[in-house]
Design a protein that fits this description.
The complex is a heterodimer of chains A (119) and B (110).
Chain A: E1 3-6, E2 10-11, E3 18-25, E4 33-39, E5 45-51, E6 58-60, E7 68-73, E8 78-83, E9 92-99, E10 106-109, E11 113-116
Parallel strand pairs in A: 2-11
Antiparallel strand pairs in A: 1-3, 3-8, 4-5, 4-9, 5-6, 7-8, 9-10, 9-11
Chain B: E1 9-12, E2 18-23, E3 34-39, E4 46-49, E5 63-68, E6 71-76, E7 85-93, E8 98-101, E9 105-109
Parallel strand pairs in B: 1-9
Antiparallel strand pairs in B: 2-6, 3-4, 3-7, 5-6, 7-8, 7-9
The chains are: A mainly beta (119), B mainly beta (110).
């Protein structure tokens, strides 16, 4: 079955880092870019950036440059998103998602990972 | 402040046709395709429309998308109770060099 399966919920202290994983099943991992999108409680969707599964090159939204790192391990078809120096307003559900190529529609989403940063 | 502007809410009765607008600029909607996503409560978003007016397989024909200039719209005909959800438009932005979303529209089926 074609799906993206993410790691479980995390609770972190302010200033800490979190790493969320996203494992791909049922398709060729290197055919699709992995994007990360977050959604704060009761808020809309916010694009964070993406990683090229072939080269490992990542591209980040300006807001997150310097504070996030997106990587991948092709041997286990898994992408990672690490967010550093967490603040309370980083509390959100983080989604990984795939896009065929660097630009296009997101046609598959992970189930989401809740990261909580209590103030 | 989202790069794309959507009305925060919309509503209709079963069987009605509703439309949700999405307004952008020349660097996003004016230059690129528009995508629409449906998000049911507590779930991940789902692709409804791609390339501004195309439906993925499995999406009912009741859903349609259109684009004109720097605006786009999603229309839902024959409204059903299961259509009650949040709807987001999205487009790539050439100036920001990234994907931008609208703020979302909460659709209520009365």
């Amino acid at each position: 079955q074609v799906q993206l399966v993410q790691s479980g919920a995390e609770v972190k202290k302010p200033g800490a880092s979190v790493r969320v994983s996203c494992k791909a099943y049922g398709y060729t991992f290197t055919d699709y870019f992995i994007h990360w999108v977050r959604q704060a409680p009761g808020q809309g969707l916010e694009w964070m950036g993406c990683v090229n599964p072939n080269t490992g090159a990542a591209h980040y939204a300006r807001k997150f440059q310097g504070g996030v790192t997106m990587t991948r391990d092709t041997s286990i078809a898994t992408a990672y998103m690490e967010l550093r120096k967490l603040r309370a307003d980083d509390t959100a559900v983080y989604y990984c998602a795939r896009v065929f190529g660097p630009v296009g529609e997101i046609d598959l989403w992970g189930q989401g990972t809740l990261v909580s940063v209590p103030s | 402040q989202s790069a794309l502007t959507q009305p925060p809410s919309a509503s209709g009765t079963p069987g009605q046709r509703v439309s949700i607008s999405c307004s952008g600029s020349g660097s996003n909607i004016g230059s690129n395709y528009v995508y629409w996503y449906q998000q049911l409560a507590g779930t991940a978003p789902r692709l409804l429309i791609y390339r501004s007016d195309q439906r993925p397989s499995g999406i009912p024909g009741r859903f349609s998308g259109s684009k004109s200039g720097t605006s786009a719209s999603l229309a839902i005909s024959g409204l059903r109770s299961e259509d009650e959800a949040d709807y987001y438009c999205a487009a790539w932005d050439n100036s920001l060099n990234g994907l931008v979303f609208g703020g979302g529209t909460k659709l209520t089926v009365l």
